[in-house]
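Posting this for the archive.
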Amino acid sequence: MTAEEQGTAGRTPDATEQLAPEPLSPEQRRLAQETKDERHMWVFLAYFLFGIHIVAFVMIYAVRHAK
């Protein structure tokens, strides 16, 4: 390792040395949004199905304990 490499080892580049991220193309933005929307759809579906089961268990309890 040279003296110049030793001086820069472990050092993070400052703001002027960092490359700006490439802007996403419209297709990449659309795919990223579509993936996010699909993930949200599965979460909402899971909550809905969980809620349906809770309602069903409460109704079963009510029917079995009705006098």
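The radius of gyration is 28 Å. Residues 26-64 form the longest helix (39 residues).
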